[in-house]
Amino acid sequence: MFFLTFALTLNFVDRQIVNILAEPIREELQLADWQIGLMSGLAFALLYSVAGIPLARWADRGNRPKIMAFSVLVWSGFTIACSLARSFPQLLVGRVGVGIGEAGLTPAANSLIVDYYPPERRASALSLYYLGVPLGTLAGMALGGLVADAYGWRTAFLVAGIPGVVLAPFLLLVLREPRKAHAALLRTAPPGALAAVKTLWAVRTYRLIVIATALQAAVGYGFGPFIASFFIRNHGPEIVAMATQAGMGVSGFLGLTLGLSTGLAGAAGVWLGGLLADRFGRSDVRAYVTIPAFASLAALPCYAVIFSIDSGALALAGLALPNMLGAMWMGPVHSTQQSVSPPEIRGGATALFLLVLNLVGVGLGPLFVGTASDAISWQFDQDSGRSLRAALILTSLVAPFSAFLFWRARSSIGRDMTRWKAVNPV
């Protein structure tokens, strides 16, 4: 599990580092907010999602450690390439390449973990893997901010990409492919891509949690590229004073503080969500969707307060709570989407899940925030700080719809989790 979690950590270092670098990139390349949203969101998510389908098909039949090693090498190389970008189109191509490479990791890893662990331990095991999300976000934002302050944003991309080049061969050496012991599975051809999608989308629980998680991601990922910009634009003098007192530049200070908030609180949320789901799920499997429903709904008032208060210090400190709540879905939801899917297309199940999540959440979330901020700026006399504040609050209103869909899944999860037991005696 250590190497899988470390791989996902690097995945999110390379994915999230652009968030803390957004403001210096915007200033140097003279970009609008919608371009930041496109670069950090849709450009990455579109190719991530599209590439995920064939890579997941490969994961359902091929050697998963090899697939993961190849993916790590590709996205790390493109992250390094971002350091050489001299224009917006060049940076856009680099982020697209990162998305293509990162698409191969999680479908293979999820499928592998499900083969390693029995159903009653899967949420906890997957929570350990998904600790890489907040830890990678922490490392990416802290590393990106500190390195950018000292050496510039280009060097930050370079430093972020190197560890993956080193990790790739270790994945080949350390991880085992358990399918070698199940030759019958390899001889059974999985259904075609369209048939697999139809099979998965017919499972009510799967369908509901995919849409619910995509909406949840639209909030979390939509905020990501703009959180540092929000504090710089709305609490600039206070942030400068705090950074100066800490002996840091603004990017380094925000990268470290936002990274710690996202990373530590997010890690607590991932761990707590998986722990509670496995604990209460033993007696009532509805816990696997009830916990994400409550967590999603509880985060809404937190965001309203954080984006409205006048104190930058309190807003920074307050982010920890919604960051924790916003991460509690990872273990329960990924465990559920694997458990309600046919075993021969579990890689495809994760790919379809990520396709919708990334197109809606990672792709459209940041683009919506950036476009909304630009579109309503005239109402605030072109004050980019106030318009961004309004766009973030508007985006947070998506959370109740996510909670509603998670809650609806309670009525079908028990039936859908037993649907494939005849062919999946694990």
From TrEMBL:
One of its GO terms (molecular function) is transmembrane transporter activity. GO terms for cellular component: membrane. The keyword Transcription regulation does not apply. PROSITE patterns: MFS (PS50850). Coiled coil: none annotated. The keyword Protease does not apply. InterPro entries: MFS, MFS_dom, MFS_spinster-like, MFS_trans_sf. The chain crosses the membrane at residues 34-55, 67-86, 92-114, 126-147, 153-175, 208-232, 252-275, 287-306, 312-330, 351-369, 389-407. Gene3D superfamilies: MFS general substrate transporter like domains. Signal peptide: none annotated. Residues 1-410 form the Major facilitator superfamily (MFS) profile domain. This is MFS transporter. It comes from Sphingopyxis lindanitolerans. The lineage of its organism: Bacteria, Pseudomonadati, Pseudomonadota, Alphaproteobacteria, Sphingomonadales.
